[in-house]
Amino acid sequence: MNGGVVVTMSAPVIVVPSELEPATLQYGDTVTLSSFDKCVVPFPVTALLVFDRPIHEPAETVKKALARALAHYRPIAGRLAAGADGEVCLACTDEGVTFVAASATCALGLEELATSAAVLKGLAVYYPGDICGDADPLLLVQVTEFSCGGFVVGVSWNHIVADGAGMGQFLEAFGELARGVSPPSVAPVRRWDDTLPGLPPSMVAAQKSTMSHEPQDLAYLDVTVPASLIGRIKAESGGTVYEAVTAVLWKCRTRAAMSSSSQGEVDSNPESLAPLAFPCNMRAHAGAGDGYYGNCVTVQTVPATRAAVAASSISDLVRLIRRAKEKAPDILSSSCSSSSVNGNGDGVAEEQPQLGWYDAVAVVSWHNLGFDAADFGSGAPARVMWYGERNVVPGCVVCPSGNGGKDDGVRVSSIFVKPEHVDAFLGELEGLAAST
After folding, report:
1. 372 annotated active-site
2. Which CATH superfamily is domain 201-367+390-434 in?
3. Label partner for 366 (CA 20 to 30 A): which of 53, 154, 381, 414?
C-alpha cells in the first residue's frame, strides 16, 4: 500500500430505519438535549474500524445492519431542530444517514495504512465544514473493501448526538445486528432523566467556550507509546495505562512546542500556560442508566506552565492527572465553582487567562468504550483509529489495542503539533522510550 492507492467511491445513498426492528422511539418524537449535550459544539468526529478478515459482501452487509441499528437508535437517523420551547433538540425525522460503498486498489496493510494520511482521508465520508450544520445527517458511514478481502468501516458523527461511549455502544449493537443478534444486547436509552444531576449553566458555558477556537491545520501523526515505557511509568507512579500515556504525550508535545520553529524562532515565554484537557465519563457519578448513549462527559483541565510541564518528571505529571480525575465528580455538586472546571481543587474560583489556540492539548481515550468490540462477522477490528485534518482543539485519541491486544504499546492518533514541530515531538518520544 502507498500514497498512490486509488479509492473509488459509489454515489452516496440515504439509509433510513428498518421497519423490521422494534423501536423505542417513533417517527416524530423529539429528544431534549441534556446539560451535558449542551456543553458540546456540534463538531464532527471520525473513527476508522479496520478489519483484516473478510465477510460476505461487506458493503451490503453493513448497509443492511445500519438500517436495523437505526430502528433501535432512531434519533441518530434524525436531525437537529428547534423544539416547542425554542431550544435545540434531536428530532426523529427519519431523514436517515449517509452511506457510501467504496473499493481500494490494493491489499490492506495495517502499518502502511496508519502512516498514510492520504489513504486514511479516503476511508470515510466527511462533513463539508468544521462544524456540522443543523440540516446535516447526524451520522455518515463508508465501507471500503480492499483487494485482499479486508475492509474498513469509517464512521463520522455529530458529537451532539453521542459521546465516545455512546458511539461505541452504537457500533457494538451495529455489529451484533450484522451477525443476526436482535435485539442488541444493550437496550439503548437517549432521553436524559431530568431527576438526575446535571451541569449548571455557568459550567455549560465554560466548557463550551473551550471548543470555540477556529480550527487550524496541524500534522496528522499515528504514534506508539512503547509498552516498556508504560510499564516503567506504572511501576514508578502506580498510575493507569491511560495516565501514563497521557503524561508522556503532554510532556513530549509541550517540549516540542517550545522548540525552534520553521522560522528559527524559539518560544520566548516558557511561563505561558500549556494546560492538559481530558474528558471524564460521568455516567456512574450522574446515575445515568444502562444503555444511555447521549453525551455524559465533562472536560477536566490540568493547568500548568510550559516550563513546569517540560521540567516535571512523568510521575509528577501522572499525579497531577490523577488529582484532576478524582475531582471530576465534584462538579455535579450544587456548590461547585469555576475551579471545578479547571480541576485544581483548591476551592477558589478564579478568572482564567485567555489561551491561544495552540497552548492547550486534549487527550481522549477510546479504550473500553466498545469501538474494539464492533464485530460485523469476522471478529473484532485489527485496528481502531481516529482521523481528522482539523480539530476544534489540538488533540489526540488513545486508541484501543489491536491484534487481540498483542500490540507492543499503545497506539495514538493525533493532530496536535504543527508541521515544524513534528520532528521535535518524535524525538522527545524516542528519547523517553530509550531511557527505559
Report:
1. no
2. Chloramphenicol acetyltransferase-like domain (3.30.559.10)
3. 53
